[in-house]
Amino acid sequence: MARKLLLDKAHVPGITTYDVYRREGGYRSVEKALKSMSPDQVTEEVKKSGLRGRGGAGFPTGMKWGFLAKPEGVPRYLVVNADESEPGTFKDRYLMEFIPHLLIEGMITASYALGSNRSYIYIRGEYVWIAEILENAIEEAKANGWLGKNIFGSGFDCDIYVHRGAGAYICGEETALLESLEGKRGNPRIKPPFPAVKGLWGCPTVVNNVETVAAVVPIINEGAEEYAKIGIGKSTGTKLISACGNINKPGVYEIDMTISVEEFIYSDEYCGGLPTGKKLKACIPGGSSVPILPANLLLKTAKGETRMMTYESLADGGFASGSMMGSGGFIVLDDSQCVVRHTYSLARFYRHESCGQCSPCREGTGWMEKILWNIETGKGKLSDIDLLWDIQRKIEGNTICPLGDAAAWPVAAAIRHFRDEFEWHVLHPQEAQTRNYGLMHYADPIHVPNSVMA
Amino acid sequence: MSLRFSDNKLKEVQQIIARYPEWRQKSALLPVLHLAQQEFGGWLSPETMDYVAGLLQLQPIEVYEVATFYSMYNLKPVGKHLLEVCQTGPCMLNGSEAIVDYIYERLGIRPGETTADGLFTLKTVECLGACGYAPMLQQGKHYREHLTREKIDQLIASCSGQPASAHH
Asked: Which chain A residues have a beta carbon less than 8 Å from that of B61?
């Protein structure tokens, strides 16, 4: 049974209310930090814990906090990124809906460490009811003295506000999020300057994902060393994985990053396997923008090792034969699914969500969508596959923000691993309208060459 | 100009502005546009946007450029019940296309269209963060998840029976 640090209390009846949350040990991290630790000591603990950003990039959180500029007389801000919108990802929603005080508690402790007297939760606009849950939790925390002026005589002031977005994937990118919070279009900013120096309203700002901030609570309560004991290598602590697609038990699971991908998919504790009669064809393990892998490369690395649910193992092999942990949005495709159609759907998503600032992304995402639609509907040419490859290559790395890469990678990985499925669509346009390509060789064991003497 | 928030709503606008530091009331634009859309017929007419601009002391263009950027703001009138079906990857894997087809079968509207009686508008939208509960649609402030034909039937029946003034 995996250790749970974030969701262990999520199903205690009434845990969304302050009284129950407090009775279950809630807000201890704030007490401990404010009464016995300096802000820098809190940051130091987070550094030592090895916590990595849970939004997708996996950047060390303590280091990010350490970059925050602290000029005299200038306010600093903590902004929580709750703009969860990477297809396949619905973990933050779960945490905020079922245990909202955990986020508020983590925010107070983090705000203390960073010196933020006014912190914001930027939540995607569609999560209307969750914004209301959070506002209630904030009100309760304030009524009980955890927010406001001079919290428990510590001299530290803090208020938290919820800010709803209005439907834009791009606002999950931290500088676009800040633009949006300032009441503008969500156009990402050119970096540097980074938000740590010039963020919200030109002030030093840390933007952290919901799950990242929530993880500060167990780190402070149990200590960085205890936290870092969980997991493997640089993948410390627990991770929320939202599993979806063609599995028996879609949902949000807290894993301790010591299990294999195979166990995650087939164990009854997690995804519970695929529906009867279906076989695993492919999986996107970390949200729609990370590379899709065929079944054989998903369960084992190209070196023939068991692939684990860790940052390092999921990325083993680079983009040639690996993928990424990303945001933890785990999308499973069974053998009745069409990789071309699914890739088309993702390309349409990125075209819709491109902010339009950079030409490679604005134009390229539209071209990719159209070409994929042609291939899917039997109007494609073999040269279109090379054209797709060329377009994605020209988007990647050539845009202000990572949305360009995020749009390019799914197309690149689909062609890299499923090229024959694309070719089959082109060569058998009639047949491709009546049936899907199927599993074919995508689950066959991969030949691992013996090492060759130099 | 005839358009105006009620006194209660104006108070709410002031509370929203107070979430941000002084002189940063432009930050209130997104939440106030949500409020305006809710109050003034489910969409943002040029008149509504101009009113919001005046309220927040912004140039009208600052409001237009924001309203046209975000997908939740409707720039055309919509039916009383807006059904927004998620069509992105994970929902597609679980049959979102069949849901869109079934709504057409029941209501005769394709994405972007409104029924002749003005009761329903159908839209397809991109990922709403409900991938594990697919297929799904958003209806006002509610998520309708694990959709089936039966659930669509129920939803249409309950919307059709409601009095015309109810908002959601």
From this structure: none
- A122 shares its domain with A270: no
Q: What pTM, to 2 d.p., does this model score?
A: 0.96
Domain count across chain A: 3
The pLDDT tens digits of the residues spanning B32-54 come to 999 999 999 999 999 999 999 99
Q: What's the gap in Å between the CA of B102 and the closest CA on chain A?
A: 20
Residue A5, in any domain of the structure: no
Tens of pLDDT, residue by residue over A209-238, are 999 999 999 999 999 999 999 988 888 999
Q: Do A182 and B27 lie within an 8 Å CB cutoff?
A: yes
**Could you tell me if the ipTM is greater than 0.90?**
yes
A16: left (phi over 0), alpha (psi -120 to 50) or beta: alpha
Q: What is the span of the domain harbouring residue A165?
A: 18-229
Q: Which of A304, A334, A364 is the last residue of a domain?
A: A334
Sheet containing A77-82: give its strands across. Answer: A159-164, A118-123, A77-82, A205-209
Closest Cα in chain A, distance from residue B96 (Å):
11
A418 contacts A284 by C-beta, under 8 angstroms: no
Neighbours of B68 (CB within 10 A): 12
